[in-house]
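Predict the assembly for these two chains.
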Amino acid sequence: MIDFNKPYLTGKEVHYIYDAVHNELHISGNGKYTKLCQEFFEKQYGFRKCLLTTSCTTALEMAAILCDIKPGDEVIMPSYTFVSTANAFVLHGARIVFCDSKSYHPSIDEYKIEELITPKTKAIVPVHYAGTACDMDKIMTIANRHNILVVEDAAQAIDNYYTGEDSIKKTLGSIGHLAAFSFHETKNVISGEGGMLVINDPQFEKRAEIIWEKGTNRAAFFRGEIDKYGWVDKGSSFLPSEIIAAFLFAQLENIEKIQARRIETWNRYYNGLKIIENYGIGLPYIPDFSGNNAHMFYLVCPSLEARTKLIEHLKNNDIYTVFHYLSLHKSVFYNTQYKGKELPNSDLYSDCLLRLPLFFELSNAEIDFVIEKILNYIMNK
Amino acid sequence: MIDFNKPYLTGKEVHYIYDAVHNELHISGNGKYTKLCQEFFEKQYGFRKCLLTTSCTTALEMAAILCDIKPGDEVIMPSYTFVSTANAFVLHGARIVFCDSKSYHPSIDEYKIEELITPKTKAIVPVHYAGTACDMDKIMTIANRHNILVVEDAAQAIDNYYTGEDSIKKTLGSIGHLAAFSFHETKNVISGEGGMLVINDPQFEKRAEIIWEKGTNRAAFFRGEIDKYGWVDKGSSFLPSEIIAAFLFAQLENIEKIQARRIETWNRYYNGLKIIENYGIGLPYIPDFSGNNAHMFYLVCPSLEARTKLIEHLKNNDIYTVFHYLSLHKSVFYNTQYKGKELPNSDLYSDCLLRLPLFFELSNAEIDFVIEKILNYIMNK
């Protein structure tokens, strides 16, 4: 049986948890391992400031608070995304303005953003779907022209890059004013549940830390910058336990190994399946401006029916594949509130995109078996 | 050196984490250990439905969403409480109406609640300070008379009881429409960071699960009640990782032992320090309607100056004591918004309350040493 996902363990996760629990005796948030993880990201990827959170969802909620989202404010994002991208802003009263996907990629169509901007638009939230970069030069230009904030939903985009017009390679998550990452167990690097907010715009640096610490200036107090701490702003308990941070740190120490193997797997799928493009099945497209972090390998089937049959065929061969994301503008929760245009590309990916198994320990033999079963099915129909 | 708090480990925490990670291969939320913890609470304490959360703060945020808090709604709570009690409702636009503490106990003065009710009042949030019960009969009567919801902030109140006019012992957290518990490392039973929402009013049962699962009906889908799931409501990622739930379950298996020792410790403090009441120092008061879960042992000093000197004296003897909570209505964040009366009892506890070391592994010799140093100081002044 080939599962869709299997969490990869480096072997040191429980060892570091043991250290946090038994040696450090610190298991609430913001201790040794939280700091180690945050420093890792700041040094490795040049993020200005990182704060671990309990999930990518809550990192996006912190972003919504920092963007000062108020009832009636509008936020532009793709309709083809996880519910959390929208929920984080809906919780603060935002009206979500959904944008279509590109015809050649499930992420937001940069050419359709500007027409959605109104005087109420507060933020644009591009989602780097499958870890593939959105065209950040285009998005930042639009945002700057209209004085709008950009929050990168980089849930799937760890260890990937964008190269824009200046030919400089920039880490995804370092370009928008704010960015959010996920370490959910289905991601490249994991901590079960977990996330991180990246603060690139220095105007948000102080406030982010306060919101993170339940609206108090406790962090500044412990650095000795102030002589007592108290309630100075809204906020929540966004800090994960040290237990979670310890687990994550073991993963981060192995990120190069993890990424190298995922990229091998991705390339093996790509080369093995390339021929099915001639049979009307789409493969992932990586634009020139994007690197590839091998978060996901997907197919785009010609129709919902074709996808359903392919899933069934693979399941009969003990291969578990999944689809996801139903266009949010058509969801039970939002369809009556949605007043915009049809979003045909978003609907296309909702109906037709299929994710293949991709995890660190997937063997070459297993990859080849998946490829073989897909080729047999598509080419013998 | 006698620290204020030391997290107690039963020994099986990391073992269960190992099981979740290596045997179950399930480390995101809502797996084996989450279910074991929730079932434990439902069976042991008769809570209708329990949902583990990433913190007590986020459990209170779920409560705020379930109470349908909208900008301008008013929520009544004590001023002498942790910032999270207020933040959870502030995040949803509530105006906080602060109530004074009782003269004889830091928790909300039940006789001062009703005068604060207006047509905009949506909820009352009594905090069972130090784990000691608020007078829930009084509070529920007022709430029912005005058709207002009650959310018990039971952060400190695990394994404790209220006995009202009907002489029936009721678990704290089972009386209000909703209740929130904390498993932060300073609590009786811990998971580093962690919390739980209790849903007692069946009207909230279905929606609570949806909000918990990021606004989707995923839980019903996995129970086979519906054939696909999607975005049906607002929500967030309130689920803790299985890693956290596994840790908590090891603690819950030992709750009787933990509670028995804490109560011994509390009683030893009480008997040893009783005499200082004659010297103007207050000891904890447990009303007849409340049990004692020995969450906290505190003194009430005659003044801020007296407290500061006592802290200093104990510190010179390597004993670490802490105060906390500055009246929230006087905080930097809320003092300009606060339009109510002076709250002298809240200010009294802000200035004068001192918490003594209290943790599972505190030895009798250490307790006696703390008692001795306090008695010497108070009686020889």
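Chain A has two domains: 13-252, 255-379. The two ends of chain A are 24 Å apart (CA to CA).
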